[in-house]
Amino acid sequence: MKLIKLNSLLFLCLFTISCQSSTKKEASKTTDETAKVEFEKPIQDLSEYETAYFASGCFWCVEAVFESVKGVKEAVSGYSGGTENNPTYQEVGGGRTSHAEAVMVYYDPAEVSYETLVRVFFGSQDPTQYNRQGPDRGAQYRSIAFYKNDKEKEIIERYIKQLEEKEIYSKPIVTQVVPFDKFWKAEDYHQDYEKRNPNNPYVRNVSIPRLKRFQEKYPELLKDNIH
């Protein structure tokens, strides 16, 4: 009986911190609303920067990872990889679209190369997890490296081959490598969510630990104010 209760408790804890849980959805509607004014980003011209697109689980986590990297000016949470127009968080998070939670990365190629961004992408996730990442399950959390041209495709595929040859993972890499089509920016309350809501249960138990693991693994890639 004690074992059954313990298993039930562990399942409840996992569900509570899952990206799909009502806790996350409600927190994103409430906690963030109170902090929106304080953390409102200034409007900035990003037209001079290059863009790259990735998906590897909850976009709160992925956005925070890329924004800690030298040469990255901005990372925007959104949706990509699907066919539906104007997807919403409720639709994507509920698995009612073919989109995945994704990020658009604005970067300065004079400071950080696309090759390095691909390294960041793979180094901050487990690319062997099919249609999931950590506690988050569903195609909306699948791993995708979007390419805008043949050069980017070559860089991604070459890096995957290197990982496979070095046998970095014990399981096959399941990351999708697909041409970029359309990026839909997520609702405003999702932008910089981890920074705005450090005490949110999901952020505290999943997002921040994932960010810290990446930063400890690649300290040489971090912005000076991150150290």
TrEMBL record:
<feature type="signal peptide">
    <location>
        <begin position="1"/>
        <end position="21"/>
    </location>
</feature>
<comment type="similarity">
    <text>Belongs to the MsrA Met sulfoxide reductase family.</text>
</comment>
<feature type="domain" description="Peptide methionine sulphoxide reductase MsrA">
    <location>
        <begin position="51"/>
        <end position="202"/>
    </location>
</feature>
<feature type="active site">
    <location>
        <position position="58"/>
    </location>
</feature>
<keyword id="KW-0732">Signal</keyword>
<dbReference type="InterPro" id="IPR036509">
    <property type="entry name" value="Met_Sox_Rdtase_MsrA_sf"/>
</dbReference>
<dbReference type="InterPro" id="IPR002569">
    <property type="entry name" value="Met_Sox_Rdtase_MsrA_dom"/>
</dbReference>
<dbReference type="GO" id="GO:0008113">
    <property type="term" value="F:peptide-methionine (S)-S-oxide reductase activity"/>
</dbReference>
<keyword id="KW-0560">Oxidoreductase</keyword>
<protein>
    <recommendedName>
        <fullName>Peptide methionine sulfoxide reductase MsrA</fullName>
        <ecNumber>1.8.4.11</ecNumber>
    </recommendedName>
</protein>
<comment type="function">
    <text>Has an important function as a repair enzyme for proteins that have been inactivated by oxidation. Catalyzes the reversible oxidation-reduction of methionine sulfoxide in proteins to methionine.</text>
</comment>
<dbReference type="Pfam" id="PF01625">
    <property type="entry name" value="PMSR"/>
</dbReference>
